[in-house]
Write a structure and sequence with these properties.
The chain has 3 domains: 135 residues, no CATH class; 87 residues, Roll (Pdz3 Domain); 257 residues, 2-enoyl-CoA Hydratase, Chain A, domain 1, CATH 3.90.226.10. The relative contact order is 0.09. By secondary structure, the chain is an alpha+beta fold. It contains 16 helices and 24 strands. The strands form 6 sheets. Strands 6, 7, 8, 9, 10 and 11 form a 6-stranded antiparallel beta sheet that branches. A 6-stranded mixed beta sheet has the order 13-14-15-18-19-22, sandwiched between helices.
Length: 524
């Protein structure tokens, strides 16, 4: 039997209306959701009405229990359904009411725990994840929520952690050390790659995942950890006790000088990257045999923006490194190089590929646009946005896109990336490499025109940006040994030939063009 509209309205009116912020039933607002909602409301790159985002977040409770459903009863009320039956209704907060929406989320979370065993088992954190994942999905692919455990790992990758300084590989019965970092507690205890760890603090490691083992290895700085170790060349295991120290995973690796050329590979940009790079450059300072440096950024996913800026400043004496612009005043910044170039007279080639992203692209674009380096490889990833990371009250993290960054010549790298001076896409053999090098010296090289179009295309012109990227399609140049070696060989040949390097560098020149805001961007 169908109920007439008047009877439906009567039935709705008889349901309990749960007032927002009813302290006697729901004593507090979820501070984690309130802070996340406030950040989205105030800092997101593109303004979004909070109300629809938060409402869509609430609809995700069906992922916890499919019998639960959130519906808009009217423009002023939100309904909670269980197994198709309306069990409660709530006042719908104003669209910009951060506290109101956080309070509504908490009320609904408490209510579904009372009526759904699945929701009781899930707990508050899974509820937050469901709501925030659904809400943030309307922003962009880089805005996301990380629960406390995952957030701890992210903080450790950026800023280090308490540990002993090893890399490891789990096996069925134990764990094998694959690397021991110099100067760490493990190194001082004479552990070596190939040693087997059978137990940590008496807990056997058989069957544990790498994440589980890492969790046991890590702990507060200056705390003790006991390892049951069977050295690589021995049959007998023994127990040793180490004191954890602050461990920062190294992100810079340097090759030995070969024919006047050295390679510095940067794997990411964490808290110590700029200092590691400074030390690497200092090790070559005053070496008269040094003719050039290869800065290998292939596979580098990025990291901390300020560390990319500091890295660029080590090679530049003046000029803009990067500019950031967003809706929030704090997101609008311009970073300039300071006088003094640690490698002032050293020629540079930067290697990039399709996985070179974010902070690595900032460094590449700065060195290319400033006329400081030749870029070799394929089109980079094209992550042209900056994320702000907020630690939430529950120790989770909200990563929120809040600005775009712009190269010194004024173009946005968003969904575009950096166009190499020498595109090696598809090249695998020495003969193909020679053809590419001859092309650098050929008259009528198309690169200046391509770069002019690259730097002049507005960020809104997504279709043209897609077409421009086809001029040098992105590849993973580290995955294939031939491609990996060929890119390095190309870089070294360019660095060893002064004329070739000068010609390649001239192709990068920034001419008169139009940047993203329609303003003239002229060569520095």
């Amino acid at each position: 039997m169908k109920l007439r509209p008047s009877l439906i309205a009567l039935a709705l009116s008889l349901l309990p209306v749960l007032p927002a912020g009813a302290a006697e039933i729901y004593p507090a607002t979820d501070e984690t959701l309130a802070m996340a909602f406030a950040a989205v409301n105030e800092r997101a790159l593109v303004h979004q009405d909070l109300g629809p985002l938060a409402f869509d977040g609430l609809t995700a409770i069906s992922s916890i229990d499919p019998s639960l459903k959130i519906e808009a009863i009217s423009s002023r009320r939100v309904g909670l359904l269980h197994a198709g039956r309306l069990v409660a209704q709530y006042p719908r907060p104003p669209s910009d009411d951060v506290e109101g929406w956080a309070s509504l989320c908490m009320q609904i979370e408490r209510q579904i725990r009372e009526i759904s065993p699945a929701a009781r088992s899930a707990g508050a954190e899974q509820f937050r994840m469901a709501v925030l994942d659904a809400a943030l999905s309307h922003l962009d692919r880089f805005s996301r929520y990380a629960p406390p455990g995952e957030a701890d790992e992210q903080r450790a990758n950026r800023s280090g952690f308490g540990g002993i300084g090893v890399r490891l590989e789990p096996h069925d019965q134990d764990v094998t050390l694959t690397e021991v970092l110099p100067g760490t507690p493990a190194d001082k205890a004479h552990l070596r790659a190939g040693d087997h760890i059978l137990a940590i603090d008496g807990k056997p490691l058989a069957g544990l995942t790498q994440d589980m083992v890492s969790h046991l290895m890590r702990g507060p700085v200056d705390s003790k950890v006991s390892l049951t170790v069977k050295p690589l060349d021995q049959q007998q295991a023994s127990v040793i006790t180490l004191t954890r120290d602050h461990i920062m995973p190294p992100s810079v690796r340097t090759s030995a000088l070969e024919d006047g050329v050295a390679t510095i590979a940067i794997s990411s940009f964490n808290e110590s990257t700029d200092e590691e790079l400074f030390q690497a450059l200092s090790s070559f300072s005053g070496n008269s045999k040094l003719k050039g440096l290869v800065i290998d950024l292939r596979g580098n996913p990025g990291g901390l923006l300020d560390k990319a800026v500091s890295a660029a400043d080590l090679f530049m004496t003046d000029g803009i490194i990067v500019t950031t612009r967003g809706r929030h005043p704090d997101s609008q910044q311009s970073y300039e190089a300071r006088p003094g170039d640690l490698a002032e007279r050293v020629k540079l080639v930067v290697l990039v590929d399709g996985r070179t992203a974010s902070a690595a692209e900032i460094l590449t674009a700065a060195l290319q646009d400033s006329g400081r380096a030749v870029v070799v490889g394929t089109n980079s990833y094209g992550k042209g946005t900056v994320q702000t990371v907020l630690t939430l009250p529950n120790q989770g993290e909200l990563t929120l896109t809040w600005s775009r960054y712009y190269a010194p010549s004024g173009y946005s790298l968003h969904e575009l990336g950096v166009l190499p001076t020498l595109c090696s896409e598809g090249a695998r053999t020495p003969a193909e490499a020679e053809i590419l090098l001859r092309g650098l010296m050929a008259q009528g090289n198309p690169l200046p025109a391509q770069l002019a179009a690259w730097r002049a295309t507005p960020v809104e012109d997504t279709e043209r940006r897609k077409r421009l990227r086809l001029s040098c399609p992105a590849e993973n140049r580290l995955s294939d040994a031939d491609e990996n070696r060929l890119d390095l060989d190309l870089a070294k040949k360019i660095l060893k030939d002064d004329g070739l390097f000068a010609q390649a560098l001239s192709l990068n020149a920034v001419g008169d063009s139009t940047n993203i805001d329609g303003q003239a961007a002229s060569s520095p």
